[in-house]
Amino acid sequence: MALRELRFEGDPVLLETASPVQQFDDHLATLVRDMFETMYAAPGRGLAAPQVGVSTRVFVVDTDWKDADPAPMIFVNPEITDRSKEEAVGTEACLSIPGKSFDVSRPLWVELRWQDLDGGVHHRRFEGVQAICICHEFDHLNGLLVTQTGTQQ
Predict the structure, then answer these.
(1) 126 touches 134 (CB < 8 A)
(2) Closest CA to 32 of 94, 63, 77
(3) Neighbouring-strand partners of residue 111
(4) Measured distance between the N- and C-terminal CA atoms of the chain, rounded to whole angstroms
């Protein structure tokens, strides 16, 4: 495992729409391991591949590790298949925009379909902090920063 260099606001890779993962191989597994190491060291609750300079549709999330036992989740080629119509505004920060926070409106829940490291397909509903974090990281895969979805505090 290795720490990867974080990319910051102004880096063009953060504005690109990431490409789908085609190969489920050792390179993907290494990227994901490095992303977790980088996320925990930062310290963050989620990290998308573009934030470490790789324009591919992968993100990792662990919303529990700061307050409880770690619960790492890997999302490859994620798709939001449904979302609540009701939204709530919350404060979000981003590892690619250090020292700032933003008020962002997010759905109360999202349903997500994704693949794991072996290409297996999963589908699940996420609520609360998990839904917020997933939406935030999903935005990164579409070239959106929290500055485009929220209002700075």
Answers:
(1) yes
(2) 77
(3) 82, 125
(4) 35
Look-up of token digits 């102004």: 10
Q: Residue 121 half-sphere exposure, CB side, CA atoms within 13 Å?
A: 2
- Summarised one tens digit per residue, pLDDT across range 70-104 is 899 999 999 999 999 999 999 999 999 999 999 99
Contact predicate 128/33, CB 8 Å: no
Question: How confident is the model at residue 150, as a pLDDT?
Answer: 62
Q: Are 62 and 71 a contacting pair, CB within 8 Å?
A: yes
Please enumerate in sequence order all residues whose Cβ is within 8 A of that of 78, keeping only pairs 6 or more positions apart, or say none.
57, 59, 112, 113, 114, 134, 138, 141
Cα–Cα dist 153/140, whole Å:
20
> Among all residues, which ones are annotated catalytic?
137
Asked whether the whole model's pTM tops 0.85, one would answer yes
